[in-house]
Amino acid sequence: MAINWFKYSAPTTFYGLAGKLIPYFAWAAAILFVIGLYIGFFVAPTDAVQSEAYRIMFIHVPASILSMFIYLVMAGYAALGLIFKTRLSAMMAQALAPTGALFAFISLWTGALWGKPMWGAWWVWDARLTSELILLFLYLGFIALQASIEDSRRADKAGALLAIVGSVNVPIIYFSVKWWNTLHQGSTIKFSGTSMHIAMQQAMLAMLIACWLYAIAVTLARVRSIILEREANTTWVNELPEMKVQS
Amino acid sequence: MNKLSLFGLLSLVIRRDLLLAMRRRADVLTTLVFFVMVVSLFPLGVGPEPEMLRKMASGVVWVAALLASMLSLPRMFSADYLDGTLEQMLLAPQSLTALVLGKIVAHWMLSGLPLVLIAPVLGLQFDMSAQALGMLVLALLLGTPILSMIGAVGAALTLGLRGGGVLVSLLVLPLCIPVLIFGAGAVEAVTSGMSAVSNLSLLAAFMLFALVFTPFVAAQALRISME
Q: In percent, how much of chain B has pLDDT > 90?
């Protein structure tokens, strides 16, 4: 059976598909957020060493994971857009960037809130913190570049090239920061191999999947807006029921 | 002109850019003066204790070099873009990658090399030892070409955009962090009595890596910007 891989790579068909999918992802995310937060706050026991402050990790860890993962996905879509010249891939990359930056920011913010009671400092030049900060810079550079190019085709391609260069550079940056850190100071407090309580694992997993689904829902919503913005002059957009209601 | 070897092409582009720069020396000098000024401001900000200055010297010189090279980046392609030369370069039968490499080398000779040469004088202001000064020059020699190479990608991507100058720094500075770390690390290793070989090797590896990829990527970026 021949599968048409490119069927949903056309904005026309994807717009409808995304519209149908968003409620599922959004509701699943909301339900899992509630479950994750409930287990995290009421079921998971108080930690022996870190007492109640450890609970911030239920949002901190998923945000950190997703901030890195989204950059990879973004670079992947950017590469697809450059190779196959599919407009939708570039739109997806553009739609993912703000969510990735948001997660990077949440990760840094919650990390600071956790660091104050644990390390006694809002900010420590730890390798992981520093590379997360640089990741946020990379996101901001990508967003700034796309925002300052008016021609959307050029913006797509330039952003794609930047995302690919960035993703090649990310491992180099990560290891250089890691070695720099060990050179300058002893390693700060680490999670040792203490086995995590089962409820903690459940809460973490629920929150991770919830954040993931949230990212998908928000990205799809954003990509729909981008499609409408870019295709505003086409007939299929003007024939959409939601456009007729407004006019 | 048709049978131009790669090195013939490179030297042609480099000589042209150098000649153009010599006709407008102010551009080169501004970068250098900026570098000297930024480095000289630090002791005024943190105080004149030689102990502390010696400790932060390599980092200060490296950060200043990073900023100074950002300052000259927007000029890398903009003059050629404005007078139409760049369009001819894109149409030329010779490889655009080689042309871009030539422009990168010329840019380094105009904005990187002067910094390397003046850095020891600035290091003396910070009471650096002779050994550390030697290592600073060596590390800058290996590191500043990387700044020009990564910078070329950023300059090509932001060609002709409003606010391109600030934007190019925003794009390029995070990518240059490894250079800063290894470059300053090499000098620090010498001052604390360790071997700087690992830092220099990594710096050289990064330079070779950038040498292979960045001219090609910058050429692609130019094609995107000129469409």
A: 46
